[in-house]
Design a protein that fits this description.
Elements: H1 20-27, E1 32-36, E2 42-43, E3 58-62, H2 65-69
Antiparallel strand pairs: 1-2, 1-3
Length: about 90
């Protein structure tokens, strides 16, 4: 039986530079995301403008523990299959 080949995996490429603060904070074990100062919405993936109000005043904020674990699944009736009322999972 032969041993598994030694494969080197590529490192992530940080492009564009707009995402540099995200990667720098991640190295320090901090999850930071952009927040729009105009509409106060949290934004991910990093970008130059807010996808909600198209504002350009974006700042980086560290996500708090409650925000990190607040996730779930949402759907609307258009997402259901054949009129079922539960999510198609």
């Amino acid at each position: 039986m032969s041993s598994a080949p030694n494969i080197s995996l590529p490192k992530p490429t940080i492009t564009p530079p707009i995402s540099q603060p995200f990667w720098d904070n991640l190295k320090q074990k901090k999850l930071s995301l952009q927040v729009c100062q105009s509409c106060d919405k949290w934004i991910f993936y990093p970008r130059h403008h807010c996808p909600y109000c198209f504002g350009t005043s974006l700042v980086w904020r560290e996500a708090q523990e409650k925000q990190k674990s607040n996730h779930g699944v949402s759907y609307n009736e258009q997402d259901t299959l054949h009129g079922r009322r539960e999510p198609p999972m």
